[in-house]
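Worked example 4.2. Below are the chains of a multi-component assembly; read each line carefully before continuing.
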Amino acid sequence: MSVLTTSVPERSLLLHHPFVRVALSGISFAALLAAPSFLPAYFVEIGFKLLLYIVLAEAWNLLAGYCGLVSLGSSSFFGLGAYVTVGLLNHTGSGIGLALAASALVAMTLALAMSRGLFRLRGLYFTVGTLALAEALRLLVVNVPWFGGATGLFVSADLPDVTELFRDAALLLVVASLVMTLATGSRFSVLLRAVRDDEDAASQVGVRAFRVKLAAFMVASALIAIAGGLQAIKLGAIEPYGSFGLQWSVDPLAIVIIGGLGMRFGAIVGAIFFVAIGELLADYPELHVAITGIILIILIRCAPRGLCGLLETALRRTGPTKVASS
Amino acid sequence: MATRTSRAASSAPLPVLKRLLPVALLTIAVAWTSTSAKAADEIVIGASIPLSGPLAGFGSFQKWGYSRAVDEVNKAGGITIDGRKMPVRLVLRDDKTDPNVTAANTESLLSRDQARALLGSCTPALVNAGALVAERKKIPLVTGCNPLEAFKSVRKWNYAWDLFFHEPELAAIPFKVLDDLKLETNKKVAIFHDNGPDGQVVGGTLWPQMAKAAGYEVVQNASFPVDNTQFTSLVAEAKAKGAEVVLVDAITPQAVSIRKQIASAGYAPKLLVIEKGAEPVQFAEALGKLADGVLVGGYWDPSFPYPGAKDLATTFESETKLTFSQHIADSYAAAQILLDAIASAGSLDPEKINAAVAKTDKTYVVGPIKFDESHNAKLPLAMLQWQGGKTSIVWPADRATGKILFPVP
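Applying the procedure described above to all two chains together yields the following structure tokens:
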């Protein structure tokens, strides 16, 4: 077992003070809420996309990075959130907040219902199981007339503008960040990692692995569903092939691998990189796909801890650091 | 036990990052300001079209049609705006056949590229996604490639305009062909249609109604998901029920599969109509001789008596070395309508451009265009038939360029 000992600079100690961290978080959130007022429209659009991707990646990171549940089922909860939100907006006239909350609730219920079957599967089998869930839901929506078939549904209510949606997405990001802080800095994080590293050993020492996985699965599903609902409101129209599209499962995975699997800021760094590359290469679609693929290959080969891992290593080398292992 | 010590700060990557950060910020700022500056000197028109994904075939034709119309205007010196000639810049983005991307692209075209007007994508899901953004942002969008009922059913449009065929007319053609050309069958009809927007309308509703009105018996009406690939049981049922008229509404990959599975089942209907999927040349290329005799409704052919029709197909084929598609015509016409509206408005004010689009009343390469109160412009239809790797018009008689192959060989 190796132990790392590092002499930490005083300014880092200050940053680790709870009061300073809460204050910094508050200032960041206030800046995020104020951003649409002074940012050009293009950056607000991109900002919305970025916030949505961060939430999706945080949720996926919670599952795969911290709990070891490598899921390809994000699209099922994303699509579910989109359909529940649009359905409620169209048929009950409920407000957006209520519709989004309901979509989170439905997603958690589905996660609960599916958990017994899915958690019997481990590793790759679990991954394939979640992929099957997404496909099954898509086919259900395509074939059941209530959901508008392949035509989908249109939002009949008046849609909010992107500034308001940006703020909703920022609020969702705050919720996701709080969840992640809890998941990575509390007793629960120890349980998550124990289950991730060796589920059987964790069970032997009294960890209720099923409950831990279920909690992570339900919370991640709820976050993804709300993100799906927000995207549906922004589009004003949904259809099964777009809402349950595989990209909603693959993109968060790519983002987390780029940012750093199981790293606290992996999702954020990865999403910024992913969205920036997408925008810079938007006029060269073939290059975009190829370059993203090449980056993924290089990162998996040379930096399995992603950009955050690289940055952490770089930071560690800059300080008057003594690193020892035993 | 191993021990490592840190490198000297000067050789670490962090100072490099610190030096690079201002450069990166400056680059972004320059890129941003140069985009805005460019937008002031030119007329930017944006389009998000499917250049990859299942509908990439349509997108390639649209790209050519849109670009051709813009190039022609630029060759003539551009468009006069507030007394000054300005060139037109067409910004195209790939929507990867995904409505989510269409919407995001459309937003970026408006906010990043400062597009003052838009051209549409292809198929209802993609066109509607972009049109909803245009509607929200109050920017005019002119499109083809979206059947009119599917377009009209979304909402009351204020800024989106569609020129394409009208599904009830398309659905009526097979029965008009059977009647006008006096084709003898046992009057039993089998219908296979996907559950996409136009599939549901044409196959699920209109064909059964029209068959009944024309005195035909619908012995089978089967719906399937858009991405279905297995049709053996549907074909076997139609064969068992003895349907001599088979009407299909499916996209190209499914259309190819259905035709192959009909042949492999030894089923030989006398009349085979495959709407939507049998239109692009890729259908005939994938099937070879099996494509012969397949009928498909068409809204354009170079032989149509409209200005520039023949030239458009000739230019396309000489430039690309590919066989023309109808989609070059509606995309070319959509771009021309928008460019004419900008010229007529003499302004880049979206409201004025939109008002000018509404006043369109002119004959284009696809025929006379005048939008109705639903923002629709109906394109007249003909029945095409694949014969030896090319399409011939077999109906109506006054436009026919070939004789119908009946029964299907």
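Take a moment to check your reading of the output against the notes. The domain at 41-165+305-318+326-378 of chain B is CATH 3.40.50.2300 (Rossmann fold). Residues 228 and 246 of chain B are 18 Å apart (CA to CA).
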